[in-house]
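Course assignment 3, question 2. Fill in each field.
Student: A.L.
Task: Predict the tertiary structure for the chain below.
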Amino acid sequence: MEAPVDWKVTRSAKGLTAAPAGDETTLLAVYVLPLRTAFEPQLWPKVVPELDGDAEALARGLGGSVEHRRSLEVAGLKARQYELSFRRDGADVRERITFALEGRREFELLCRWRADEGEPPECGLLATSFTPV
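Answer field:
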């Protein structure tokens, strides 16, 4: 994940996050989570509805909604991307989550920003610069 040099990067067992200092909303993150069963590309038609349901549940939990959804490739992997909208601390927030699947791993790429500030350019770079390791 690439982030501006003045952003604070935090590593954890599940991945890493980057956020500008003093900004409680804007966030870039990459998480790696285990899958119960190995993903095979032929399973994609069955996986999409499950991912759609997960995104809907996440949006409901945030008190928001899924605004956009699409399938794409990220670093050569099958992926599903969602854009959520919700309110946090009185502000409209957008969150883009991309789930990319490989074998027994799920990569979650997340970018969050205040709607009135517009999408940070770093969000566009997240999926294009991502390389699974």
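Instructor remarks: Helices lie at 44-61, 121-129. The chain has one domain: 26-129.
Grade: pending
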